[in-house]
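Troubleshooting log. The previous run stalled partway through. Resubmitting the same two chains, unchanged.
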Amino acid sequence: MDYEAPAFFDLMAYARNADGDVIDMVSGDPDWGSPDGIGEGLHEYADLGGADFQYPPTEGLTELREAVAARRGVDVDRVVITVGGGEANYLAMALGLEGWPGSEALLVDPVYPYYPGKVRMLGGSYRYVPADRDGRLDPGAVRERVSEETALVVVNTPNNPTGAVYGERTMRELVALAEEYEFLLVSDEVYDHFDFSGRFTSALEFDSPNAVVTNSFSKTFAITGFRVGYGVFPSAEVADAARDRHMLTATAGVRPSQYAVLHALETTDPAYHDRSRRTLEERVETFTDALDDAGAEYMSPDGAFYVMARFEGFPGTEGNVRRLIDEAGVAGMPGGAFGESRADWLRFALVTDRAEEAADRLAAYF
Amino acid sequence: MDYEAPAFFDLMAYARNADGDVIDMVSGDPDWGSPDGIGEGLHEYADLGGADFQYPPTEGLTELREAVAARRGVDVDRVVITVGGGEANYLAMALGLEGWPGSEALLVDPVYPYYPGKVRMLGGSYRYVPADRDGRLDPGAVRERVSEETALVVVNTPNNPTGAVYGERTMRELVALAEEYEFLLVSDEVYDHFDFSGRFTSALEFDSPNAVVTNSFSKTFAITGFRVGYGVFPSAEVADAARDRHMLTATAGVRPSQYAVLHALETTDPAYHDRSRRTLEERVETFTDALDDAGAEYMSPDGAFYVMARFEGFPGTEGNVRRLIDEAGVAGMPGGAFGESRADWLRFALVTDRAEEAADRLAAYF
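Second attempt completed without errors. Output:
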């Protein structure tokens, strides 16, 4: 095996097993609750039994695909329902590495830790394109590094871990680069319901043969354990290739979960999403205010639900993360988990209603 | 993409869209109903919400892994819960091709159609080892074809499509060959609850560092749409490598489904499995009696729920499968889908209570 797991599992276990009261800001597990439609849908499904407990269509339940296609304004034959956003990214990255010239991926640093592992697992190599100070991506920095070897560029907007949201101009230029240099742009948009800036622009806006959009209901409906995501591929042909790999990997997607998600899509008031987003925005404000009090430097997120911060004289190493757990009662992630550029930083996930308390603890500690 | 999808989806659609009444014996979707514990477990889970709707541990819910380990008599750290048996096979085959010397897989012909596609997808090549007339595998035939290039041998017992059950001697010799020639033996045992012969022997019996057993609850509990399978790996280290690939492919398994399966494991009377098996045995008997009447040659299954048959002067081509759908009202699978050796044959899945009627239709037609 020449790939490896993201290194944060040990830290999650360490935080869980700590003696004192630790506020867990490590994982990305939403804590604000799912819409009622999820539980209702599961209850409905549980009574069906028989044929409804068997394989869904490989590409996903037809009604769910239709609902996704209608919301995204694309033809249904471009949509494949996957085992979460994780599988959607795996499929899209495989398409890029196998179907496009070259065998190299450009990833943005700071990077979502699963991307490098996926590229390696798929037999590709990768290079980092550094984000700017604010976590934004300058398409010019991609242009500087793109080559004939570039099969794939993967972006995540709104971004984990930086909270950056790529605007219309950035996305337009990335799509144009993909077409000019013949690579596949994979735009992972799983945090699209958590844009505080109003600037979020999906790669789908540009209707390009070189762009795949991946997404998931894991964050949208606070159901990371259900494993329902999707890819919107440039054409029915590319979607069919993704579906075939999906079939050879997982046989089919998850019918109970797809059924529940469909029910939630049909019944959830948009106010649910507004509430979730406002909850996160308020946490961001509270948390960053307290970081100011603590004298920390931080990246102000425009979306998603993470804050990267740096404390003077306290680099975000694994050792220091353990110290924070033991001595301050706050568990974050070491910056080195997210590429090379922010090894001194820490990432805090705002998935707890104790974010303010955590920030106070940090302020008191530093 | 240098792999491709099994070719039976077109036929399934053709059968579904046919004008007349067609008895569907194409897919492997059980029709005999799940134990009550599945629906009960889902109902229970649906009310939990919150943290219980989030990612399960990457390797699967601890209690489910413990239940599997106890039933299989292995250490829990050798068990990884997967997205169905399909993902378990994908992981095991990847381990074989990446972790063992060589890049070739030996597959048994007739073959389960997903295996060749998975090998190709994983960058390997494959050769067939022919089964004997009755579908049994002579380990000597494996020995004849094994070489330094052999990374992987994949067997399926009880077998889809032949119904063969590999006995104690065969499994012992296959495991010994794996150790002698340093390849990974993957034993796919998803039909282990459907052994009519009493001869089924799991590869786990031999506790070898060269054997992985894959299994699934899809057939066991008639829930192919839930996507809960597992691998039992030779050691905790190999299981960790499988878990890492699982994480990079699907992030995690499916929590609602794992919860429901755990509940069903705790509450299902063994009589449920006896009933399911007897139902299948009776269908096999009825169906093969009628095949006798139709003058067909067939392979008598010792397990699983498929019958391969050959009709004089009517090779099992795709064209003839369509003719049978249109003219006899019975949908089967062309033999060519299962490798090279039985292209003249047809496979019928006994997943309908109309198996007798189907056989009568075939007898009348021929």
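Takeaways: The first strand of chain A starts at residue 23 and ends at 24. The two ends of chain A are 41 Å apart (CA to CA).
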